[in-house]
Amino acid sequence: MAKELTTQGRSDVTRGREDAERTAMTFTPAVDILAQGDVTVILADMPGVAPEDVDVTLERQHLALKGRIRPHAPEGYRRFSSEYREGDYLRVFTLSDEVDEKQIKAEFRHGVLRLELPRATHAKPKKISVKAA
Amino acid sequence: MFETAFAPFGAADPVAEMRRMQGAMNRLFDGVSVPDRPATYPPVNFWTGSDSVVMTAELPGLAEDDIELTVKNTMLSIRGTYPEAKEGENTVWHRRERPAGSFSRSVELPFRIDPDRIEARFTNGVLTVEMQRPEEDKPKRIAIKTS
């Protein structure tokens, strides 16, 4: 349904030139992928990303999920201990089925991106009735 | 402030104390491990101010109501349960990497905190808890009189 595509090289390859100065790390978000009938649902965890900083692109069969983090340090505080790190998110998948691009639904809630990718009608199997001679 | 080998103010330094406590907590929980899940979940980051401390944790997919935050003396506990994925009869799973189930974690804080002045926010899957030191526990400046 959705095959993963690993990006080559460092994150600066995938980023635009204007972003080259950013030093944020790039993480691979954890995803759940499930098929419900003709709809493929992808859930991706991107904590710390604001809804407007999520970028989903579908080019041919490549689906790219991107999330940009705005590092937020509490004002007047010093970082004391870190068990996790903040960073951007990027994950690319190759879709095997044709997706009805106009019907794609995307929503972002509580740091989770939810994508619904319905299969294109012309990609659905057609039943061919066999006539008796 | 002077750095001395004896650290005469060591015990009063919230940062040093916090580091020590965290090390102790980590050792305490080192032996306890649950398969497929790190023993300490969720990972937390700490930020310190002069009389306050901020804790942040990434908990994507949870809602405000799914997180339970309790404080007793210097122990802060976070508990929560991830909502179960809605499954229909014809659901086929291809990947399942996101956390599921419930978790519980207690963190020892470097000082007593004022339970009435805790501010917790949950935005974009990140929990931020700001805690203040009680007024009576704050170090007081003593005026020195000239004779």
Low-confidence stretches of chain A: 9-15
Choose one word for the global shape of chain A. Answer: elongated
Instruction: Estimate percent helicity of chain A.
Output: under 10%
Q: What is the CA-based Rg of chain A, rounded?
A: 19 Å
What pattern of helices and strands is seen along the backbone of chain B?
Answer: HEEEEEEEE
Rough outline of chain B: elongated
Q: How large a portion of the residues of chain A is in β-strands, by DSSP E?
A: over 45%
Helix content of chain B: 10-25%
Largest sheet of chain B: 4 strands, antiparallel
Distance between the termini of chain A: 38 Å
Largest interface: A-B, 32 and 42 residues
The CATH topology of chain B is given as Immunoglobulin-like
How many strands in all of chain A?
Answer: 10
Architecture of chain A, CATH level 2? Sandwich
Query: Low-confidence parts of chain B, pLDDT < 50 over ≥5 residues?
Result: none
Order of helices and strands of chain A: EHEEEEEEEEE
What is the annotated CATH architecture of chain B? Answer: Sandwich
Mean pLDDT of chain B: 81
Characterization of the model:
The complex is a heterodimer of chains A (133) and B (147). Chain A is mainly beta and 133 residues long. Chain A has a single domain (2-10, 24-71, 86-123), classed as Immunoglobulin-like (Sandwich), CATH 2.60.40. Chain A is 3% helix and 49% strand. Chain A contains 1 helix and 10 strands, in the order βαβββββββββ. Chain A has one helix spanning 11-14, and strands at 2-5, 25-27, 31-36, 39-45, 49-59, 62-69, 78-82, 87-95, 105-109, 112-118. In chain A, the strands form 2 sheets. In chain A, strands 1, 2, 5, 6 and 8 form a 5-stranded mixed beta sheet that branches. In chain A, strand 5 (49-59) and strand 6 form a beta hairpin. Chain A is elongated. Chain A starts with a strand and ends in a 15-residue tail after the last strand. Chain B is mainly beta. Chain B has one domain (10-85, 100-137): Immunoglobulin-like, CATH 2.60.40.790. Chain B has one helix spanning 14-30, and strands spanning 44-48, 52-58, 67-72, 75-81, 91-96, 102-108, 118-123, 126-132. In chain B, strands 1-2-8-7 form a 4-stranded antiparallel beta sheet, with no helix packed on it. In chain B, strand 1 (44-48) and strand 2 form a beta hairpin. Chain B is elongated, with a radius of gyration of 20 Å. The two termini of chain B are 27 Å apart. The mean pLDDT of chain B is 81. Classes of the chains: A mainly beta (133), B mainly beta (147). The interface between A and B is large, with 32 and 42 residues.
